[in-house]
Design brief:
Length: 268
């Protein structure tokens, strides 16, 4: 399947000529040279979403509180690590605010940049377990179109980025997203501890607002990049980022208005 991606890269001039088959530095890393396995994971994920609730229908929900505490705080650590590495690489390389190309050099900082891109992709695979835990706990109301769309598409998009453009412009979006996930999985980890901590979880609404700010920021950066002059980072990726981020912005905004504004109007 990588040959098909390479042919598309060549046909539409999507990557530098020496990267059409992927960044050679990451080619031996886990799943980087195996798109079929990534797509299989997504297919199994979608099958779980489709058939999982029916499988659990006549079964009692699993009690996973202890596992969820460990899982969520493990993702807090992973997300914090990714954010720190993306921020550190940006500072060391002196990232440009409007346009930052990828460093394909086989140097310490170049490999560090590629490595954290790979970890960001791996985090998206791990986060697919969010949905599995919802289904096992019979929290099917949490498995919305927004949830499934976001998780499944991010995995594939991050695979492509880690294999072909591991760094550069992507770090602004990935770093912001990882910072949000630090707070988000902290919230989920605390919530899994039980009702005794519920009084400390008044800030869930602000997580969604933080996410909305994230998408607005991604859109603004993508638009600014179109006017920042020649840039070695592929313009088409910024176009895709703009369209994808806009779709998430609309979906999250719809969720926010239904969840919080409707509650506010009812309370009045």
């Amino acid at each position: 399947m990588e040959a098909i991606v390479a042919a598309v890269n060549i046909r539409f001039n999507l990557t530098p000529s020496n990267i059409v088959n992927g960044d050679p530095r990451v080619s031996e890393w886990f799943l980087m040279n195996n798109l079929a396995s990534v797509l299989t994971i997504i297919l199994l994920y979608l099958l779980m979403v489709k058939h999982g609730p029916a499988f659990m229908e006549k079964r009692p929900p699993f009690q996973l509180s202890q596992l969820l505490v460990v899982y969520n705080f493990a993702l807090v650590i992973l997300s914090a690590y990714i954010f720190f590495e993306m921020f550190a690489v940006g500072v060391i390389r002196g990232y440009n605010l409007f346009c930052q190309p990828v460093n394909y050099e086989n140097t310490a900082i170049g490999l560090r940049e590629a490595s954290v891109s790979w970890w960001y992709f791996i985090s998206k695979i791990v986060e697919l377990l969010d949905t599995a835990f919802f289904i096992l706990r019979k929290k099917n109301g949490q498995v919305t179109f927004l949830h499934v769309y976001h998780h499944s598409t991010m995995t594939v998009l991050c695979w492509y980025a880690a294999k072909y453009v591991p760094g550069g412009e992507k770090f602004y979006n990935g770093g912001f997203n990882s910072l949000i996930h630090v707070f988000m999985y902290t919230y989920y980890g605390l919530a899994a501890m039980g009702p005794q901590v519920q009084k400390y979880l008044w800030w869930k609404r602000y997580l969604t607002e933080f996410q909305l700010v994230q998408f607005l920021g991604v859109n603004a950066r993508s638009i600014f990049s179109f006017f920042s002059g020649p840039c070695e980072y592929p313009t088409w990726i910024n176009v895709v980022a703009l369209l994808y981020s806009s779709s998430l912005l609309l979906l999250f905004l719809n969720f926010y208005l239904k969840t919080y504004k409707s509650k506010a109007s009812k309370s009045n």
